[in-house]
Amino acid sequence: MQAGRLQEQALRRSVELVGTAGGPDAPDEQAGGPVGSAVGQAVGDIGAYIRAQREHARVSLRQLARTAGVSNPYLSQIERGLRTPSAEILAQIARALRISAEALYVRAGILEQRPAGAIVDAVLADPHLTERQKHVLLEVYQSFRRESAGTDHPE
Q1: Does residue 36 share a domain with residue 101?
Q2: Structure pTM?
Q3: Which of 60, 61, 63, 133 has its CA at a distance of 20 to 30 angstroms from the CA of residue 70?
Q4: Domain tally for the chain?
């Protein structure tokens, strides 16, 4: 349920960003001022981040494109910062790479970084955990933290 809410927020934010950057079909036509350059930077950053995650997972561009359900040229353009992927495409890529879709949304500037500790960051970044495992692990961790917050001396 939380993933659906995150995807909805990401889609909303994605629409806002696309409107400020001239849309996904006009990668070179960025709006003037800091907003346009910030969006352009986010697009390049997300592409480099996806490429780094793909290389870390030792997956070829073709394998990732097939698993994510996108074309090879489109994924290549995303990685090179020439295209702005939608929140839906980011979710497909995250699923294929077995990384957190939320992490990709934050990298793309679709969601704001929420304060998190080193443990949360480590769980979200772990490529060996599925999205479901990450979600359950973080829920358990947060419930323990809430429980410990009520005591003066957590053990």
Answers
A1: yes
A2: 0.53
A3: 133
A4: 2
